[in-house]
Design brief:
Layout: H1 2-32, E1 42-46, E2 62-67, H2 70-76, E3 84-89, E4 102-108, H3 117-127, E5 128-139, H4 148-157, H5 168-173, E6 178-187, E7 192-199
Parallel strand pairs: 1-2, 1-4, 2-3, 4-5
Antiparallel strand pairs: 5-7, 6-7
């Protein structure tokens, strides 16, 4: 599945910004405002895509931006703008990093894209230091939500660009070392949510 996802996002990389930049700018900025302003911390942006988060990242930290596709990383690279940003091609479900090496992790529009959201969140918890936070911005179904149209559309969309059937509470329940600290609806009647988790 990662191979098909890599192919899909390689193809859409040139159009990605045109679709998502305007709609998500304010949401990204608000989510990333939760990062500390100072401290020289190590922050992973997992699924950095074309780098739309980068302009909103506090400049004083050390960042690693990971994405599955070289095409997306090529678009992210010029957005560094003086930030300490190291780009890595890799899989968010099998992170190529040591345990407990990041102070914070950003998961913007990635949990509902990867084939296995639970594996992605488990890997996030593994590389996160105790007391560190995970900032999530994505679309999720609520427990027990029928959403017949979204679930039907998911049969196609999950093979192309994104999943529409992820229930966040089910994903979080499988990663007990992370606890929910903040959860707010931000778009589309609460389909999109801004979530903050803390380890330990």
């Amino acid at each position: 599945m990662s191979a098909s996802l890599r192919r899909a996002y390689t193809l859409i990389a040139p159009f990605y910004d045109a679709v998502l930049a305007a709609a998500g700018t304010g949401l990204r900025a608000a989510s990333l405002a939760q990062l500390p302003r100072q401290g020289g911390l190590d922050v992973l942006v997992s699924g950095i895509g074309s780098g739309l988060d980068v302009p909103h990242l506090p400049p004083d930290h050390r960042y690693v931006g990971l994405d599955l596709t070289a095409a997306m990383l090529a678009r992210a690279r010029p957005r560094g703008n003086g930030r300490h940003l190291h780009l890595v091609q890799g899989d968010s479900m099998a992170l190529p990093f040591a345990d407990t090496c990041f102070d914070h992790v950003v998961l913007h529009l990635i949990l509902a894209i990867v084939p296995d959201a639970t594996a992605c969140l488990r890997e996030t918890a593994r590389v996160l230091k105790p007391g560190g936070s995970v900032l999530i911005l994505d679309k999720f179904l609520r427990p027990g939500e029928a959403a017949p149209f979204r679930r039907a559309l998911n049969r196609l969309s999950r093979h192309v660009v994104t999943r529409l059937d992820v229930v966040f509470e089910e994903v979080l329940a499988a990663v007990p070392e992370l606890r929910l600290e903040h959860d707010a609806p931000v778009l589309a009647g609460g389909w999109f949510r801004s979530i903050r988790l803390v380890k330990g």
